[in-house]
From TrEMBL:
Its main location: membrane. Residues 49-148, 165-254, 265-362 form the Ig-like domain. Keywords: Cell membrane, Disulfide bond, Glycoprotein, Immunoglobulin domain, Membrane, Repeat, Signal. It comes from the Eukaryota. Coiled coil: none annotated. It is found in: Cell membrane. This is Ig-like domain-containing protein. InterPro entries: Ig-like_dom, Ig-like_dom_sf, Ig-like_fold, Ig_I-set, Ig_sub, Ig_sub2, Ig_V-set, Neural/epithelial_adhesion.
Length: 475
């Protein structure tokens, strides 16, 4: 620093004959801060230049251009120089740039005459600007403006550089994190910047699920911190997470980390028995859950029905757009034949295991009809027994006949007795009460029975018997 100041002072003074014999001593280059008051006193006493205003400090974001201003009164024939305090690097002498770097430049602006109220004289003021282009964090620090007076005038201006956030590769999770369901997962994100950035986590779709009291999931929109801790991960937590780093310097930055959760596949169907008339189209649907992505297929016995096999058998596969671990597979059979009535299995395989579920197809007629008898339309004495009979047509496949009271199935207790014969099914309420005036419904489950004329005749006979009983009570 001492050598640089000596060199700068020498160069500045060499062009001035009235300063040619001046001795440059250590007192000249001694680190000394001259305030405006000191400069004014020098001006009054020695009629030499002085600083009109402090340089001040400048704060700028990296990558931009900035400048430091040094305004001087009564410069006259004296010269101005700039140097960097940190390493004593001379940057300019007068309007000439000494540094080879294109980063620095000097300009003279606002040369004007102003009346000095203290002295009553007109003083000329000039502003010397040190321009710094494409500012980097390494450019931060203090810069010195000097005038080659005796003693030398100097003042400092400091540059503070703000840096936009940046996500570091070291200490940050990779773009894909894989864990098994039930294990713990940690997503990490390290960021740099000035000032220090704030790091937060968000999920690309939906909310982040965090386990709370009693391990229940609590949805949160944002989790602040470099680490996102997920305890006993569940398949519902699978997806893309965004690490976002921000500070006052735009723009913020983000990194996408995809959490993949591996678990064994499962296969499930809504109905294990599906009936359809011959000649119709039928669809078998199976829900698959599993990750990694499963290989899905349909089997009939040992025969594999491949995806899009064509012909009367067609298979489709749909992945849930929001939950990629869910897949729906469908087997469509066109123009159902008697030979198609069999058991079909949906099978899912992955590196985590294998799962299957079965559906059996059985034949039915075009429709399954039901007989409904309303006790409200029948008159019977409170407390007496009542017998209801319905007949059904026997199909080639075994059927099950059930009675319903409104919607629920008739309970098996002492109050109701259900008997079945070859041609008829009878329900006998032993002690019918007024609250039993609900509709009783008979339905042939898994059968192709139809209501025939006998059922209507039996209902008519029951109605007549109750009418006779009713009138006999009043006579």
């Amino acid at each position: 620093m001492r050598v640089a100041q000596l060199l700068l002072c020498y160069v500045l003074l060499e062009d001035y004959s009235h300063n040619a014999g001046a001795a440059i001593t250590s007192d000249i280059i001694h680190h000394q801060d001259f305030t405006l008051d000191q400069n004014t006193a020098t001006l009054l006493d020695n009629n030499v230049p002085s600083f009109a205003t402090p340089i001040g400090n400048v704060t700028i974001a990296s990558g931009r251009e900035t400048f430091l201003s040094c305004t001087i009164r009564s410069l006259s024939t004296y010269k101005v120089g700039w140097l960097r305090e940190r390493d004593s690097m001379i940057l300019s002498l007068g309007t000439r740039t000494v540094s080879n770097s294109q980063k620095f430049g000097v300009s003279l602006e606002n040369a004007r005459t102003r009346r000095n109220l203290t002295t009553g004289k007109n003083d000329e003021e000039s502003t010397w600007k040190l321009h710094i282009k494409n500012v980097k964090i390494t450019d931060a620090g203090c810069y010195m403006c000097q005038v080659n007076t005796v003693p030398m005038l100097k003042q400092l201006g400091c540059l503070d550089v703000l840096v936009a956030p940046d996500i570091l590769s070291t200490g940050t999770s990779k773009s894909e994190v894989i864990v098994k369901e039930g294990d713990n997962a940690t997503l990490e994100c390290k960021a740099s910047g000035k000032p220090d950035p704030v790091v937060s986590w968000r999920k690309e779709k939906n909310s982040i699920l965090i386990r709370g009291h009693r391990e229940q999931f609590i949805p949160v929109n944002t989790s602040v911190g470099e680490r996102l801790e997920l305890v006993k991960v569940d398949r519902k937590q699978m997806g893309a997470y965004l690490c976002i780093a921000t500070n006052p310097v735009p723009p913020g930055v983000s990194k996408r980390v995809y959490l993949r959760i591996h678990f064994a596949p499962t296969a499930s169907v809504e109905n294990h028995m599906v009936g359809s008339p011959v000649g119709k189209n039928i669809s078998l649907i199976c829900e698959i859950e599993g990750y990694p992505k499963t290989i899905n297929l349909w089997k009939r016995g040992e025969q594999v029905l491949s995806i899009n096999s064509g012909g009367r058998y067609e298979s489709y596969e749909r992945v849930d757009p929001d939950e990629e671990w869910k897949t729906t597979i469908e087997l469509k059979i066109r123009d159902l034949q008697i030979s198609d009535m069999d058991e079909y299995k949906c099978i899912a395989k992955s590196s985590m295991g294998e799962a299957e579920s079965a559906i059996r197809i059985y034949g039915v007629t075009d429709s399954t009809l039901a007989t409904t008898v309303s006790l409200k339309k029948l008159n019977f004495a409170h407390g007496n027994s009542l017998m209801m009979t319905t007949s059904r047509r026997i199909s080639t496949r075994k059927s099950t006949t059930l009675f319903y009271q409104s919607t629920p199935i008739i309970p098996k207790n002492k109050k109701y007795k259900l008997t079945t014969t070859t041609t008829t099914t009878t329900i006998i309420p032993r002690v019918p009460l007024t609250k039993d005036h609900n509709a009783f419904k008979h339905n042939n489950v898994y059968s192709n029975a139809k209501i025939n004329l006998n059922c209507s005749i039996n209902i008519l006979i029951i109605s007549l018997l109750f009418l006779i009983k009713y009138f006999s009570l009043f006579n």
